[in-house]
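We emphasize that the prediction below concerns an isolated chain of 248 residues; any contacts that depend on oligomerization or on bound cofactors are therefore not represented. The input was used exactly as deposited, without trimming of termini.
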Amino acid sequence: MKQLQLSSVVERRLLVNYRVAPEAAARLLPGPLRPQLVHGHAVAGICLLRLGSVRPVWAPKAFGLRSENAAHRIAVEWDGPDGVETGVYIPRRETASRLNAWAGGRLFPGEHSRADFEVHETPDRLRVALAARDGETRVDVTVELSDELRGSELFADLAEASRFFRCGAKGYSATGSGRHLDGMELRTDAWRVEAGLTRSAVSSFFDDPDRFPPGSATVDCALVMRDVPTSWRPLPAMASGQGARLAS
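Result of the prediction step, given as a token string:
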């Protein structure tokens, strides 16, 4: 089945980013992916994404749908035909949308698990919590908007962080078969992010000592994107070597 190219509006994209020990990140990656390092650290995080006006690129905006979604991500690189490429590996996706859970991996790349979301938003403060219905994932983060990026050991300022994540627009997702990775690329001509200050962050993924031994994953910074028109382009599937598979 041919997968769709989608249009949407990123109503809110909250990235809570972690500094991770490279060896801890590498254990979670299937070949041919390897951690992308910044100042000796791997970079990983949680993407909490509300999309609006989601529709095939040929459909009128009035037919678009809205959904809350989440992904755990690890920044990666791999050897492409023209040199080293960069993006993110996504071992786990959640959605509040029954349609997304059915269509992910079929009509568009990325298998999703169902989750229940709780969201509290003001112009200056965001709290997003979720619980996957299969019990595999729980997240609860609170972030306040900030006039500058503060306390990060990964990035000197907001501009540097913005460039890094803009270059990671290709996302490859784990699949239940483990034989390949689904790929999708985010595209926008209106990229803009704001700095956030993480007030609290709980993640069953990053707090799991079997995945991340104590001290190997530390919250570094947060970024917020709001009201940005985007498109999502399917990428050719990537053959997957031995490594992590989609949690179930």
